[in-house]
């Protein structure tokens, strides 16, 4: 599920203990760029990670090829720079333990650089060159287009990919955003032209990012100079179109008939409250408690019904404002209807329970994982950046573990009862080989048919 890439899932990744030598500060570079800075000068820390977020409306545009950002992001470092050809540049980055890439999200392009501080000058010179003067030569673009198209065609053959694609079109409709996330026409990759890529680059990689974070063995002055060097010569940012999105989480029961399916899979969705309510950690505690190995969903679907070996649940979003909870399981095909009934009723019983066991245990476990990752500079930079994009203060990286550890059962129960959809109001989509496996469901054989199913 590559589309489940942004937003609340990152909150499980990191936190950092505040101390006199390691504290988040919002600094301003000489050129006027604000950035969140977490200096880490501990003995064994030599690395630095910089993340820059640029706004994009590309996924909302109907006049573009949705493959362009994916081709551009993979081609940008594949041609060489700083007097080195592609192979030499790759070897130089590997030898220096350095790393750079662009992450394509629906509402932001995230640029990332990670490197040992001793190689700051080299990494900055390479990154500046590929940002200010990208090559995107035809031969490299052809290679990248072939790879991107092939990867997408292979993904489209898999049942799980089609299950979540059906969920996406149910929520987003046949919209540009759906097309950007699903890429339903793999052959469009071959139609990406060099001018398309160059236009995307100059439109979205500009001197006006919306958030910047940097963590590791680097001073505020060095960080500011690095940021200024990368950004000041980039083009001005154009006006972008609105990225307001209509989503539809109305109840839906769909069976996607896939004759060659080797297994039957089920996905369930509920809309979640906006991040502005500042309760996303409660969502994650609730979903982890529901789906853990000793939790109620596993007990019902695996131990009692003996219809599945595993259940997974989490919180994600297709764009910054559209959050949802999901539950996923592979089930025995001849027990599909029973499995859905049991999963739905177990979810609803959990959602409305007067007491919930194991909240303290689950929240403590998550807090421990958060603390365990706190020493990784790349995770710290990512968490600060995503916190800012989500409307939080970047210093949430210092308090996140405490948020999880301090969550109460009462708070989790209230969030479940007020923020999660009722069991009968879920979107439920299954995929498998037998159209008779779920009586009463709307049976489809292609993704677009979801739009004709009654709701």
TrEMBL record:
Gene3D superfamilies: Metalloenzyme, LuxS/M16 peptidase-like (3.30.830.10). It comes from the Bacteria. The lineage of its organism: Bacteria, Pseudomonadati, Pseudomonadota, Alphaproteobacteria, Rhodobacterales. GO terms for molecular function: metal ion binding. Transmembrane segments: none annotated. It holds the Pfam family Peptidase_M16_C. InterPro entries: Metalloenz_LuxS/M16, Peptidase_M16_C. This is Peptidase M16 inactive domain protein. It comes from Cognatishimia activa. Residues 193-352 form the Peptidase M16 C-terminal domain.
């Amino acid at each position: 599920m590559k589309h489940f890439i942004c937003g609340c899932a990152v909150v499980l990744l990191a936190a950092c203990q505040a101390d006199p030598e390691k504290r988040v500060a919002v600094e301003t570079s000489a050129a006027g760029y604000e950035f969140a800075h977490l200096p880490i000068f501990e003995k064994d820390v030599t690395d630095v990670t910089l993340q820059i977020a640029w706004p994009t409306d590309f996924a909302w545009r109907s006049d573009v090829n949705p493959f362009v950002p994916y081709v551009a992001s993979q081609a940008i470092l594949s041609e060489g720079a700083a007097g080195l050809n592609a192979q030499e540049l790759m070897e130089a980055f590997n030898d220096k333990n350095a790393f750079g890439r662009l992450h394509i999200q629906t509402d932001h392009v995230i640029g990332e650089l990670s490197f040992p501080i001793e190689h700051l000058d080299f990494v900055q010179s390479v990154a500046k060159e590929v940002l200010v003067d990208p090559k995107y030569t035809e031969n490299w673009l052809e290679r990248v287009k072939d790879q991107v198209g092939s990867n997408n065609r292979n993904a489209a053959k898999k049942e799980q990919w089609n299950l979540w694609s059906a969920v996406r079109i149910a929520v987003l409709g046949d919209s540009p955003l759906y097309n950007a996330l699903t890429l339903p026409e793999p052959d469009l990759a071959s139609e990406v032209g060099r001018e398309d890529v160059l236009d995307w680059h100059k439109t979205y990689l500009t001197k006006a990012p919306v958030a910047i974070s940097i963590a590791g063995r680097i001073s505020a002055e060095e960080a500011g100079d690095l940021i200024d060097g990368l950004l000041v010569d980039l083009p001005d940012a154009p006006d972008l179109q609105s990225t307001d999105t209509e989503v539809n989480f109305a109840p839906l029961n769909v069976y996607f008939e896939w004759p060659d399916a080797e297994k039957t899979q089920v996905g369930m969705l509920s809309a979640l409250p906006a991040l502005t309510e500042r309760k996303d950690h409660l969502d994650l505690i609730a979903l982890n408690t529901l789906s853990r190995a000793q939790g109620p969903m596993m007990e019902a679907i695996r131990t009692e019904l003996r219809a599945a070996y595993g259940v997974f649940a989490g919180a994600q979003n297709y764009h910054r404002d559209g959050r949802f909870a999901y539950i996923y399981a592979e089930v025995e095909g001849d027990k599909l209807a029973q499995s859905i009934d049991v999963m739905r009723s177990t979810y609803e019983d959990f959602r409305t329970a007067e007491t919930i066991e194991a909240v303290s245990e689950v929240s403590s476990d998550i807090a421990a994982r958060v603390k365990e990752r706190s020493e990784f500079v790349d995770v710290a930079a990512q968490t600060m950046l995503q916190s800012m994009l989500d409307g939080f203060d970047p210093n949430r990286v210092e308090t996140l573990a405490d948020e999880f550890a301090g969550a109460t059962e009462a708070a989790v129960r209230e969030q479940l009862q007020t923020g999660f959809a009722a069991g009968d109001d879920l979107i439920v989509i299954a995929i498998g080989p037998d159209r008779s496996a779920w009586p009463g469901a709307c049976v489809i054989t292609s993704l677009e048919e979801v739009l004709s199913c009654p709701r």
